[in-house]
Amino acid sequence: MEVLKSDDKLREEILNDAKTKAERVTKKIKGEVDLIEKDCSSQIEKIDNNFRLLIEKEISLETKKIFAGIDIEVKKKTLDFVGKIVDEIFENIKKSIENNQLINYKDFIFKLINNSVSEIQSTSYILEISKKELEKLGKKDLESLKLKNAKIEQIIEKNIDGIALYSSDRKKLSFISLSNFIERLKSEERIKIYEILTKNEE
């Protein structure tokens, strides 16, 4: 005679299965990140896209499987599991860049500065930077940084986090930091996961 499981026991089994699958996502992504780290000398331009594609593909596929057939209460708990995985992945990425393991930190920040220059589109800039960040990047290297049709006219040491890049007339500003870059990508991935959850509710 078949014995029907209670709702609580069934939910517990589903949650355990979801957690196991979520842990599998972590292992798979960490494996991919390890492979990327071995090729850390590759072009800086690929960083953003590589992580976007890697994380989007792995989390999207596994999250769809996890959410299939699970009620909304369990989905919310599963979303929390996946959210913790996303936090862990991006924290590891941040530490790897800070420690020059995944890519040279200075090169990475200089790339972000160049990206900001493309957005502001001025011919000269004022750069405000913390003492700690200035020591990491080097004042001479900042002064000699090659920018497209532009140059840094003035570097001002200030008690701020990251770097504030102003057009010379101070009408335009771009705030640059590794933390901001990581948080932006992490936020985008969380939105994608939420969209997957919403679609599976319909």
Task: Produce the secondary structure layout.
Blueprint: H1 7-38, H2 46-67, H3 72-98, H4 105-120, E1 124-129, H5 131-137, H6 139-143, E2 151-157, E3 163-167, E4 173-176, H7 178-201
Parallel strand pairs: 1-2
Antiparallel strand pairs: 1-3, 3-4
Helix pairs in contact: 1-2, 1-3, 2-3, 2-7, 3-7
What does this structure look like?
The chain has helices at 7-38, 46-67, 72-98, 105-120, 131-137, 139-143, 178-201, and strands at residues 124-129, 151-157, 163-167, 173-176. It has 202 residues and is of the alpha+beta class. It folds into 2 domains: 7-103 and 181-201; 105-177. Strands 2-1-3-4 form a 4-stranded mixed sheet. The model is unreliable at 1-6 (pLDDT under 50). It contains 7 helices and 4 strands, in the order H-H-H-H-E-H-H-E-E-E-H. The chain is elongated.
Order of helices and strands: HHHHEHHEEEH
Rg, Cα atoms, Å? 22 Å
Number of strands: 4
Mean pLDDT: 74
Overall number of structural domains: 2
Strand share of the residues? 5-15%
Secondary structure class reads: alpha+beta
Termini distance?
35 Å
Query: Helix segment count?
Result: 7
Largest sheet: 4 strands, mixed
Estimated helix fraction: 55-70%
Please list the strands of the largest sheet in the order they lie side by side: 2-1-3-4
- Low-pLDDT regions: 1-6
Shape field: elongated
